[in-house]
């Protein structure tokens, strides 16, 4: 289980809530803005209610008597940045117009909860889901939909604190935004940046919408704001040099993926190869390379910017299963202990799960 997490002051009236542990699927950074007049807002919210309540209680300790979180700025619509907003019901939920559309596309919280709890831990997918998502509880979670959406730019004021929002072209997801506080020179980037350092190891970048050129352009827009303190979606806070280093890594992955695509190497094999190359070296959850490389390949093949999220997780699980068994580069027959075929439609359409070709109606 996660232990309670303290708030870290980044600048006057700007605080960071990071979950403990700070690395792993769904363990995202959140921001708290408190204006001198007591007006307050969140930037993102934790993945489940227990973590969100922890963030709320710690936020209240910095608010005046009777103060409330009046607004939640959502950097993108993945659940680990949005679902905790239900604990501040009544707040204005601000997101891009495309993020609103993305909500319908993801598995709903109760579907994901059932999928994690109902999966067989003897299979790669079940083992992976329970290892990485079993710590969360979405049994009663309802998604709070955005109440304010925008395209392009949106200037807000949280009391006396200006916040500049920039909607991005599809990068980590469709509907990402950057939130920049010009007075404090702090940027909240959401998941266009995943940070990691030797002192505070993070996880491998996972990008669903891409292509990587768009993610790199998003990172450069973060630098263009003039930010000196950069809060990534996951992992430790960065300075500008840290962002440049991350851009260099993304460029490396992009260039290698293109080389392998040109050489006719299939996407999954390319991802396994990049994991085995272990450039930089790799941070945690290296199996997420499958999604990031898969996204790049989808664009190189002229495909759409929306993958089948659950199907991708099933492949990621298989690769992690193989890595655990010491088979990073290929999936030789001895690694193929179980095979799962997963087809899914997210949001309000229940996914269909096929295990050994047999449908499992986990979501009815
Ligand atoms: Zn995230």
Which terms summarize this structure?
364 residues, alpha/beta, Metallo-beta-lactamase, Chain A, seven-stranded mixed sheet, five-stranded mixed sheet, 10 helices, 15 strands, binds zinc ion
How confident overall, as mean pLDDT? 87
How many DSSP helices?
A: 10
CATH topology: Metallo-beta-lactamase, Chain A
Return the CATH architecture. Answer: 4-Layer Sandwich
What can you see in these coordinates?
It comes from Streptomyces himastatinicus ATCC 53653. With 364 residues, the protein is α/β, with parallel strands linked by helices. The chain has one domain (7-360): 4-Layer Sandwich (Metallo-beta-lactamase, Chain A). The chain is built from ten helices and 15 strands. It has helices spanning 49-60, 79-82, 97-103, 109-118, 124-133, 212-224, 240-262, 267-277, 289-300, 309-324; strands at 7-11, 14-17, 30-34, 40-43, 69-73, 92-96, 148-150, 153-158, 161-167, 177-181, 186-194, 229-234, 340-343, 352-355, 358-360. The strands form three sheets. Strands 1-2-3-4-5-6-7 form a seven-stranded mixed beta sheet. The protein has a five-stranded mixed beta sheet with strand order 8-9-10-11-12, with helices on one face. A hairpin with a 2-residue loop joins β14 (352-355) and β15 (358-360). α4 (109-118) packs across α5 and α7 crosses α8. It starts with 6 loop residues before the first strand and ends with a strand. The protein binds zinc ion. Zinc ion binds next to α2 and β12.
